[in-house]
Amino acid sequence: MKGSIGTMLLLLAIVVAGIQPWPGVSAQSGGWTTLFDGSNLNGWNELGNANWALAEGAVQADSGSGFLVTTESYADFELTLEFWVDEPANSGVFIRCADGQSVRDTSAYEVNIYDTRPDQTYRTGGIVHFAAPTSVIMTGGRWNTYEIVAQGPRLRVTLNGTQTVDVSDSQYADGPIALQYGAGVVKFRNVRVRRL
User: Fold this and answer.
1) Of 5, 44, 66, 179, which residue is least crowded by CB atoms under 10 Å?
2) CA dist 180 to 8, 16, 46, 100, 194, Å?
3) Which tens digits make up the pLDDT trace of 158-184?
């Protein structure tokens, strides 16, 4: 009896302490899972030749081009993350990627990060080819937050607390999430997801 009580108490302590049962998995309250906590890139595949590096709790790149792509696919979810870019940066968060080995804005929804995009229609806060942002928010030189919700055909984007997109489209239903490096200096941190 004492042994089984001790085992139950140990298991309870592990659950309460949030000890990870295996690398790359992080239990969170409310169903949230940390995809990137600043310490490693477990759960991500690198695609392309961007020079991704870990520094000061973030993953960053400043040359090459490419993506960090989740090893898991997501259909209906809420995604939150922080990003830092310089003024000429070209980046984005791609969701429901049809092909995790060939990420493109024509085979996924690209939530753009590109303040100086020549065609401002789908600038930062918009979804390229699908929805222009309702507000112009400059993001260069500071940390910013994205909240992205994909639920059925409905896609919502909130940038720094301001909703910039609320659109319906059913072209892509499921797939990995990808973080893009295209130009400038790009940093990401505190990437979390919750399946809906």
Assistant:
1) 5
2) 44, 35, 10, 12, 21
3) 999 999 999 999 999 999 999 999 999
HSE-CB of 173 using CA atoms within 13 angstroms: 2
Q: Name the token pair of 61.
A: 């790149």
Which pLDDT value is given to residue 28?
58
CA count, 13 A, side-chain hemisphere, 81: 27
- Give the per-residue pLDDT at 5: 52
Mean pLDDT, the chain cut into blocks of 10 residues (196 residues total): 48 42 50 97 98 98 98 98 97 97 97 97 98 98 98 98 98 98 98 98
What is the C-alpha separation between 123 and 30, in angstroms, rounded?
Answer: 32
Taking a C-beta distance cutoff of 8 angstroms, is the pair 85, 72 a contact?
A: no
The answer for residues whose C-beta is within 8 angstroms of residue 125's C-beta and 6 or more apart is 111, 112, 133, 134, 135, 136, 137, 157, 159, 162, 164, 165
Q: What is the mean pLDDT of the chain?
A: 90
Nearest to 73 by CA among 178, 179, 193, 176: 176
Distance of alpha carbon 134 from alpha carbon 123, whole angstroms: 10
**Phi, psi dihedrals of residue 147, rounded to the nearest 5°:** -120, 120
CB 124 within 8 A of CB 92: no
